[in-house]
């Protein structure tokens, strides 16, 4: 172990000691940003190497979360806007996502896909649906895998689903208007049944959500990290937890 690694290890332990179990976020959302820029910074012409490096980091993140006591992790792998990327980049990226999901299943995680799966290639959508079915009864940490996800699309889908549900019962528009409220819409989100995220992390230095969990993040704490996602370290994760623990959550007050 080099001197630098030793220093980081000692710093990690110092951060861990300062974290109280009752200050750990229950639900953490992560925007895994910077894979392409990491590849270019490394001098790699094929950005799929960056996507693969980023995918490899996900299993590390989940282990860190489990060790810390986090119960739910939502990882944004691909937005619905990204589906318009050039085929020569999108096809390898889909294969990486498919392999990543298979790895999560094999690794014993409980996988819950979220996003507009109907916009994805049939094979990718099938792998995501199968992962949910196979792992739905597993105990422990829940991994929400956001693929083909967009916050505006999620809200539109939720309202559409709510309207269809009530219409199937013979309700009129007037009837629906009478019962339409925040709780009813929330029951039709991709994350229905789960608590909203307490902490949202974005890597690569960008300080915006880009539509990630628009509805659910109303009271979330945000943490922006300068490192590209493939370079995100456990010490960065612990810093995010420390920052979260230091904040006084006001819930809009």
From TrEMBL:
GO terms for cellular component: plasma membrane. Its EC number is 2.5.1.-. It is an enzyme of class 2 (transferase). GO terms for biological process: polyprenol biosynthetic process. Signal peptide: none annotated. Its cofactor is Mg(2+). The keyword Protein biosynthesis does not apply. Substrate binds at residues 34-38, 51, 79-81, 85, 202, 208-210. It comes from the Bacteria. It holds the Pfam family Prenyltransf. Mg(2+) binds at residues 33, 221. One of its GO terms (molecular function) is magnesium ion binding. Transmembrane segments: none annotated. InterPro entries: UPP_synth-like (IPR001441), UPP_synth-like_CS (IPR018520), UPP_synth-like_sf (IPR036424). HAMAP family: ISPT. Belongs to the UPP synthase family. Z-FPP synthase subfamily. Homodimer. This is Isoprenyl transferase. It comes from Sphaerisporangium melleum. The lineage of its organism: Bacteria, Bacillati, Actinomycetota, Actinomycetes, Streptosporangiales. The gene is uppS.
